[in-house]
Amino acid sequence: MERTLVILKPGTVQRGLIGEVISRFEKRGLKLVAMKMKQLTPEILDVHYAHLADKPFFNWLKDAMMAAPVILCCWEGFEAVKVVREMAGATNGRKAVPGTIRGDYSVSSQENIVHTSDSVENAKIELERFFSPEDYCEYPSPLDKYLYAPDEH
Ligand code: IDP
Ligand code: MG
After folding, report:
1. Ligand 2 centroid – CA 85 distance (Å)
2. Which of 116, 90, 120 is nearest to 102 (CA)?
3. Which of 4, 61, 98, 153 could be bridged to 123 by S-S, CB 3.0 to 4.6 A?
4. Neighbouring residues of the ion ligand 2, judged by CB less than 5 Å
5. CA 55 to CA 127: how far, in whole Å?
6. 10 with 66: CB under 8 angstroms?
7. Residue 114 is inside which H or E element, if any?
8. CA distance 5 to 22
9. Dihedral pair phi/psi, residue 108, rounded to 5°
10. Predicted local confidence at residue 53, as pLDDT
11. Which domains does the chain have, with CATH numbers?
12. Which of 48, 51, 115, 153 is catalytic?
């Protein structure tokens, strides 16, 4: 099974949407295997958003990501990276399709509820950035046979 990183951004924490957003991933059938609340730092954001360092909004983005704690989650499932990314929707909340998380809860290109890993390769790198091996919980998934066909793993 694939694993992917979701960060519930500071605005999501402040707006009381933690439960709503986590509930969506749970209801979809994804399995939560690690979760923690953390105050992000400039140092970790410089690395995490290095691909945006030359953008005019980079410092605003960093400030927004440090405005309150975030919730870091690792979700596991068959093709979880793509499934989660598509649930988040387009980066700009005004362009995100209703029914996606950003399309239902945001109207901004910056304040857009969640970060989600954009590829299997980046998911591995990002999970290592925010979680240690001991942060993960291994527990049985008795519902798997109701969620997946035998060749979906
Ligand atoms: P993603 O979060 O959909 O993967 P990225 O391009 O990786 O989008 O951008 C990371 C974050 O930077 C976005 O989630 C958003 O918070 C912020 N961002 C992206 N584009 C803009 C913009 O044009 N203005 C302001 N903030 C932006
Ligand atoms: Mg991105």
Report:
1. 10
2. 90
3. 4
4. 118
5. 24
6. yes
7. strand 114-116
8. 12
9. -135, 150
10. 98
11. 2-152 (3.30.70.141)
12. 115
Tokens of 106: 């945001």
> Within 10 Å of residue 9's Cβ, how many Cβ atoms?
24
Per-residue pLDDT band for 28 (boundaries 50, 70, 90) equals: very high
For residue 9, give the ligand 1 atom closest to its CA: 16
Tens of pLDDT, residue by residue over 98-109, are: 999 999 999 999
The count of other CB atoms within 10 Å of the CB of residue 43 is 8
Hey, what are 69's tokens? 């704690």
Residue 91: CB within 6 Å of ligand 1?
Answer: yes
- Ligand 2 mean position, distance from CA 34 (Å): 20
Q: Which two tokens stand for residue 107?
A: 């109207």
Tokens (6 digits) for 54 = 């030359």
90 within ligand 1 shell (Cβ under 6 A): no
Q: Does the annotation mark 115 as catalytic?
A: yes
The stretches of the chain forming alpha helices (DSSP H) are 10-14, 18-28, 42-48, 58-65, 80-88, 101-105, 120-130, 144-147
In short, whether 109's Cβ falls inside 6 Å of ligand 1 is yes
* pLDDT band per the 50, 70, 90 thresholds, residue 20: very high
